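Long-time lurker. I teach an intro course on protein structure, and each term I like to show students one example going from raw sequence to a predicted 3D structure in token notation. This year I'd like something fresh instead of my usual example. Would anyone be willing to generate the tokens for the chain below so I can use it in lecture? Attribution to the forum is fine with me.
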Amino acid sequence: MIRLVLFDIDGTLIRSGGAGVKSFERAFATQFNLPQATKGIQFAGRTDPSLVRECFTRAGIESSAENFQRFYEAYLHWLERLLPQLGGETCPGVVNLIESILQLPSPPQIGLLTGNIRPGAQLKLSHYGLWDYFPFGAFGDDNENRNELARVAQQRGSERCGRPLSGDEILVIGDTPLDIACAEAIGAKILAVATGGHSLCELEVRRPTWAVASCAGLDIAQLCGA
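-- Reply from a regular --
Happy to contribute to a lecture. Here you go:
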């Protein structure tokens, strides 16, 4: 039986209309005079710190704590302003899925497993009315390595359950091959949803436990073994 469900954010819970990428671009342009810092960089499934570090490295900028802080302050500034302007949305079926989990007779814990830094995750999910569903999570500022974040989330979920959770008691829901790899790192089950930038076929090739077009119409009792 599933005792912990971990959600990715971008492309899984929400589509922000590109607010995250555009905020990255503006932060680099305004703070470091790098208007094309993110050109050619793949964002999907990555952690914010790894993306910032890659941009710094490509531009020859020191990856110092001070430069990271300078970037994040500008990034959050722009994210807060761009989210209302870009016409994003929650992904299909997400709210019903979360509500269905909470209504199970013995509901599992619900958390986040995301490469977003925590303040960025809060801004995004608060904008779409989802933040309060998630009492805890593992975020990009916990660890730069996405697979290590899965272990952080597993540990925090175990603490909330009052006992160690094995991988087969955990369900990760995500929209990229990197989310699948992240789940595999802790032996978790994976529900891959084709609501981000990857097609259903691209996800199925990675052999997730389940692959679906979206979260709409899912039988959560069956997925959770309830």
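Some talking points for your students: The longest strand covers residues 109-113. The radius of gyration is 17 Å.
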